[in-house]
Amino acid sequence: MKLSLLSILFLVLFSQCVSGKDCACELKNSQRPFPMEKLNSIRTAAKQCSKSITPTQLTEVDVLMLGVQQRLEQLEESVSVLENEDDGDLYGAVSVRIIELELAEILELMGKLNKTINFHKQLNESTASKLQNMTQGMQELEAFDLLQVVSKQRENQRIKQDLAECKNELRATPPPPTPHPRRCSQGELVNVTGPRTYVLTQYGTSYSYGAWGKDPKPAPGKEDMYWLVALTSSNAYANYVRHYTSLSTILVGVDPTDSVISSSNPTTNTIVGPNVVQYEDALYYGCYNTPSVCRFNISSRSVTNTPLPENSGFNNKFPYGHLDATYIYTDLDFATDESGVWVVYTGKDNFGNVILSEVIEGSPPSLGRTWRTSLHKRTATNTFMVCGVLYATRFLDKETEEIFYSFDTETREERYDLKIHIKKMQTNIQSLNYNPQDQMLYAYSDAHIVSYDTVFQ
Questions:
Q1: pLDDT at 177
Q2: Residue 144 backbone dihedrals phi, psi, to 5 degrees
Q3: Mean pLDDT score of the chain
Q4: Which of 237, 294, 412, 448 minimizes the number of CB atoms within 10 Å of its CB?
C-alpha cells in the first residue's frame, strides 16, 4: 500500500533531491492565473461611470423644459395683454419691452437646454461604450469561475425577481431602502394599502376635481362627520363645503348639510383648486384671484385670510402635473398632520421648487416657519404631510401612483429614493391628504372618493 501511494505521488509531483536525505517538490498548476489587474481595471471604470452621472443630471432637461414651457405661457399672456390693451403710446412701448425681455429669457433657456441635451448625448454615448467594454471584460473573467459562483448568483437573482413580481401582484410594496427612525411614535411611512373605500360622489361624474376627508381635530359632537368639496365651476372653483354625519351617509350620498362660503361662483372668498383641508372646524383653501390662504370658519360662516410671500404662484401658474397632463389651479396645496395645517406652494424666486410653510391657526391665520426644497413642483402630482415630513407623489401609469420624495422639516433631509406605490382606481388623483387621527390617506380621484390605509415601520 505504501509503495502504491509513493508511485502516485511521483507521477503527480516533480521531485528533486537536494541531499542524500532531503527532497524539494514542485507543484505544477495546469490552470491559468487569474487576471487580477483586469478586474481592478473594470472596477475603476465602473466607479468613474457612477461618479460621472449624478441624480441632478437626470432632472436637468426636465427642469429646463418646464422653465421654457412656463415662460412661453407667460409670453403668450403678455402678448394677449398687449393686443387687448395697447394704447399706441407709453403703455405699448413698455409692454413691447417686457416681451423683448421675456423672449431673451426664453432664448437663454433654449441655449442652456440645447447645451445640456448635447452634453447628455455625449455622456450617453461614452457611458454606453464603457459599459459594453466592461460587460465584455466580465464575460471573459467569468471563464475563471470554475465553481460556477456567478451563474448561481444569476439564478438567485432570477428567483428574487420572480418573488418581487409575486409581491407586486399581492399589492405589496417593499419598504424604502435604509429607513431612518423618525420622531413619530408610529415610525416611518413604508407602505400604503387599499383602497379601503371607493365610490362615486353624490354628484356623479359631473365634477372631476375636489377633496374630502375627516377633520383631524373636530369640534365637539362632530367626531364622526366627513366633509366634501367638489369644484362645481370649470373644475376650478367652489363656493360651499358639504358635510355628512357619517361614513355611510357620504358613501351613499344622503342627508348632506351645505355650508355656503359665498353667494356666487366664482367671486370673492370662492374656493380655488382642489387641495383644501378641514382642521378644527375650519376650511383652509386658496383664495380667489390672489396668492393668499383663506380660512372659512364653519360655525360662524366667516372668512379671513393671510397673504403668501411676494411673487408666490397662483391662478394656475405653478400647478401639479405629469408628462400627459396638468392638474389645473393646484398652485396651493394644503395638508394636515399631527401638528396642524401646512401649505405647499412655490414662486419665481425659488425657480418653481416647492416651498413649505406652517399655517398658524387664528382669525385671521398667519404663516409660521418656512422651508425651501429642491423638489420642482411640476414634477409632482400631489403632496401630503405625516408628522412633520412632506411626501410627494408622481404619476407612474394609469394604475399606479408613487410616493417618491420626502422632506423632513426637523432634519431638512431630502430623499428621492422612496418607492411606495398607491394602487389607483381611476387615472388621476386630484387631491391627497393624510388624517393623523385615523392614519388614513383621503384621495379625490376623477369624481370618486377613495381612502387608503398607511403602514408604518
A1: 46
A2: -85, -5
A3: 85
A4: 412
pLDDT at 15 over 60: no
Distance CA(97)–CA(90), nearest Å, equals 11
- C-alpha 380 chain-centroid distance: 5
Instruction: Look up residue 405 and give its three cell numbers.
Output: 420624495
Cell of 263: 353667494
**Does the CA dihedral 227-253-397-324 come out positive or negative?**
negative
Q: What's the grid cell of residue 62?
A: 426636465
Residue of 235, 228, 227, 240 whose CA lies nearest to 209: 235
Q: Above 70 in pLDDT, residue 236?
A: yes
pTM for the full predicted model: 0.62
Cβ count within 10 A of residue 179? 13
Residue 222's identity, in one-letter code, is K
Q: What percent of the chain has pLDDT over 70?
A: 86
For the cut 60, the answer to whether the pLDDT of residue 256 exceeds it is yes
Q: Which residues pair with 443 in a beta bridge?
A: 432, 450
> If DSSP states are collapsed to H, E and C, what string results for the chain?
CHHHHHHHHHHHCEEEECCCCCEEEECCCCCCCCCHHHHHHHHHHHHHHHHHCCHHHHHHHHHHHHHHHHHHHHHHHHHHHHHHHCCCCHHHHHHHHHHHHHHHHHHHHHHHHHHHHHHHHHHHHHHHHHHHHHHHHHHHHHHHCCCCHHHHHHHHHHHHHHHHHHHHHCCCCCCCCCCCCCCCCCCCEEEEEEEEEEEECCCCCCCCCEEEEECCCCCCCCCCCEEEEECCECCCEECEEEEECCHHHHHHCCCCEEEECCCCCCCCCCEEEEEEEECCCEEEEECCCCCEEEEEECCCCEEEEEECCCCECCCCCCCEECCCCEECCCCCEEEEECCEEEEEECEHHHCCEEEEEEEECCCCCEEEEEEEEEEEHHHCCEEEEECCEEEEEEECCCCEEEEEEEEECCCCCEECCCCEEEECCCCCCCEEEEECCCCEEEEEECCEEEEEEEEEC
Which residue's entry shows cell 366634501?
Answer: 228
439, 186 contact by CB (below 8 A): yes
pLDDT reading at 208 higher than 50: yes
